[in-house]
Amino acid sequence: MNRFVYLDHSATTPVDQKVLEAMLPFFSMDFGNPNSLHAWGRKARQAVDQARDEVSRLINAEPSEIIFTGGGSEADNIAIKGVAFAKKDKGRHIITSAIEHHAVLDTCKWLEKEGFDITILPVDEYGTIRPEELRKAIRPDTILVTIHFANNEIGTVQPIEQLGNICREQGVLFHTDAVQAAGHISIDVKKLPIDLMTMAAHKMYGPKGVGALYIKKGVKIVPLIHGGGQERGLRSGTENTAGIVGFGKAAALASDRLAKEETEKERNLRDRLIDGILEKIEDAMLTGHRTERLPFHASFCFRYIEGESLLLRLDALGIGASSGSACTSGSLEPSHVLLAIGLPHEIAHGSLRLTLGKDTSEEDIDYVLENLPKVVESLRAMSPYGKRG
Amino acid sequence: MNRFVYLDHSATTPVDQKVLEAMLPFFSMDFGNPNSLHAWGRKARQAVDQARDEVSRLINAEPSEIIFTGGGSEADNIAIKGVAFAKKDKGRHIITSAIEHHAVLDTCKWLEKEGFDITILPVDEYGTIRPEELRKAIRPDTILVTIHFANNEIGTVQPIEQLGNICREQGVLFHTDAVQAAGHISIDVKKLPIDLMTMAAHKMYGPKGVGALYIKKGVKIVPLIHGGGQERGLRSGTENTAGIVGFGKAAALASDRLAKEETEKERNLRDRLIDGILEKIEDAMLTGHRTERLPFHASFCFRYIEGESLLLRLDALGIGASSGSACTSGSLEPSHVLLAIGLPHEIAHGSLRLTLGKDTSEEDIDYVLENLPKVVESLRAMSPYGKRG
Amino acid sequence: MYTEKLMQLFMNPKNVGRIEDADGIGEVGNPICGDVMKIYLKIEDDRIVDVKFETFGCAAAIATSSMVTELVKGKTIEEALKVSNKDVAEALGGLPPQKVHCSLLAEEGIKAAVDDYLAKKGKTKREASETRQCAKA
Amino acid sequence: MYTEKLMQLFMNPKNVGRIEDADGIGEVGNPICGDVMKIYLKIEDDRIVDVKFETFGCAAAIATSSMVTELVKGKTIEEALKVSNKDVAEALGGLPPQKVHCSLLAEEGIKAAVDDYLAKKGKTKREASETRQCAKA
Ligand SMILES: Cc1ncc(COP(=O)(O)O)c(C=O)c1O
Ligand SMILES: Cc1ncc(COP(=O)(O)O)c(C=O)c1O
User: Fold this and answer.
1) Nearest-Cα residue of chain D relative to residue B229
2) How far is the centre of ligand 1, averaged over its atoms, from the C-alpha of B199 (Å)?
3) Pocket test for ligand 1, best of B9, B13, B73 (most atoms within 8 A of CB)
4) What ipTM was predicted for this assembly?
5) Which residues of B touch C13 (CB under 8 A)?
6) Which residues are C24's β-sheet partners?
7) Which domains does chain A have, with CATH numbers?
8) What is the pLDDT of residue C136?
9) Domains (range + CATH), chain C
């Protein structure tokens, strides 16, 4: 094996060394419970406060508008169920899209069983939600619209400003799952019409198991996890101090990268990867939008072969990739996202996602461009549908 | 200042060095998402599996009976709401006790608002729930009894076997919050009549932000956090690999300590502390049960003074203690636990909790026994109620 | 959570104790709520020449007691009655929101002691301030 | 999730390809479900003298295809029909639960190819096995 090339940053990112260094004191040394009044506790409280500042600065929120959670999925659940239970006497209609992450979709489906009414908006072939579809779907009893900022499987970035403005006009709360976007795209919640927004540390070089929910001042939600009243009573439980400190540092580093436009490097490499693959491999297509997409995200479907065998062959060459969403790759159904953009099953089965990171190099991309075509070729040679040449 | 003596292990424990070492590779090196199929993901999956084994062994459960959560509070919420929503068509009556942690009590209170019927059992002066009270409270529509294994504020250990047996006889599910007990008292879920049990890593020298719920085979619950289907669909979200690995290691180390009866050392030091304080300080009382209590736990009320000023004076001497529960110490109401055992408000305000750890030394105890009486004395000299000598 | 100033006063409070032949004694608060302040005044020519306190309560209660005694010492009764809870809090560099009631207690303690003094002298008692409920966090 | 044995066969499958003058060809599975196996048999005196496969599918589908061809090679038709999905799975050192259907597909692939051979020879066709729905994880 020549190299190790990790191209699955949409699934998770390595913890940045600087982030780990920031976290380390909070395990065994400054290990206090932030709720304790003694010196150990006060030190931990300070650290949590600082992290809240850092995370809020990443999206230009107020620190008091950020609550820390036990991950992105949890934050999605808190936001959606939190609004649903808070507003259920006002209305029970919620709007979402067909290509949301399961943390949003399955939450909505559960609410449907509990007596809520869910509208699932379709998307076009690029995975974009059309603002006019949203406008048509809003009813007098609509209490929440939840549409992700950017898709994890196909990278498409949504027209968040337009979508949010429609919600604002209609007086409906707007939640966006920005797990894939936050830290990678500049987001300013003072400028964008967003009421609640989900983030996860582990998608921006922070640790797993910690997320955050932005809740605009004045927006009321019912807590999902009751207890000691931490995080303004909205997410009880002893704070994951080290994890939160890590998130803070990761957010601060991401703010820096965004300010310095370092994501441009990723975008350029991604474009080389996309262009190279489409050029070198026949019967390949890009999934998602060509330009309105995450700067680090490339995703494809290759005819005549199946995604799992493709990614395991790549794995054997040291390349870490995914097919569809990591969360559902145990399943044999093709991804709901690929079906929603209109791909037939047999094509959707041949999906591959390559997501770059801040440390991905030219050489990494060269390595993939050299090896991926061979792998596709060899699998096609085995396929009853493959071309023979 | 002479020493630093941390005696607030009920609030949280430092991460054991061995635990931290076990966690370290999973931040920046083996950082994969356990749901990914490639080498990075498989390594993470293996680590999570091993941790699940280790945690299950601590309580003699099957690995498949353990799900990892984002902390103890979350596990309590998953258990209680999970049973409530799963069984609500069968009945809506839930029984708990007056001295549960807020993660249990406030969850029950929320369910009450959502149409459930909650019975709160009283406790005796030692904080023990009388089994006959439980038996009287069970009704045909009772679906769940949730009573903690041991109390965080006063250390009392409940007669879990008797309580659980009553539930079993009546065919009612039994959940116990063992956040304070697990890792410190031997628990065998094959022998004890427990259906669901909550644990938290950070109370046994593991990291904060990770908990576990034991769910006996065959017990069905509705998930609280929907999404990608991790943890057998019962707690979605990318697994906190490093945290889970840390929990596994902490559980393995706790199993060792329990097997070697190392908690005896803590128990002996605790007894010296209790006896010393009651001997040296007038108008002091032990709260909780004298013998049926957590081996590391000592808690008191001192008349004529107030807990917060007591613990801040101790803090100035390098002693980390708490007054009531760390989670509610921002509040001015005396703890619900101290009121439930029948203490009048003015006495409950003077509570102090000293909770020892595995590394607490004789000298630490000597230091407290030397300084605490002076601090109590000096605060009493300031109090309008204090005796003058 | 507390300012350094407050912690200093809490650790080394001034004017602790009682005045055996006090001219006015005020006791405010309630042990059920967890804080009671007792203020002793020595008054000469309507001027506070000595003041002491005894307090049962949290760090903020002790520090505000100490601070308010410092603030009124040497003042005339009239001036002392103008010392407000805000003055006390400001002099401590601020108070966390859930502890603001301690500064109210301090203000009330002085007023109660002055009232006691006036009552003993047979002068008109000021209008009594209402008894408050225990503060809630 | 996969055994080493399975991964080896997936990386280096045996009997890949087609037999141009095959005596029996079986195609099972469905591209909609994400796996299709095509089995080619060369048969002499009711004995399988050569066998090849083409598979569109996951690693397990490819490995089970390869394994089943190994297992039936050289066997009589009757013996080959007795090779069950369990035999295939066992020979691979086991399969994860959600991939068991791949071994079923392999078994069915052989049966379909034999059926095709028998049909071409004008012999009675065995009773057709039902078409299955896409497997669900
Ligand atoms: C008895 C009990 N239950 C639940 C909890 C909540 O655990 P966590 O703070 O880890 O969410 C605690 C600790 O704070 C506890 O002592
Ligand atoms: C768009 C999106 N939303 C939510 C999540 C869930 O985040 P987590 O796995 O950290 O709970 C993910 C990642 O898996 C995601 O990509």
Assistant:
1) D137
2) 8
3) B73
4) 0.94
5) 382
6) C41
7) 17-258 (3.40.640.10), 261-381 (3.90.1150.10)
8) 55
9) 4-120 (3.90.1010.10)
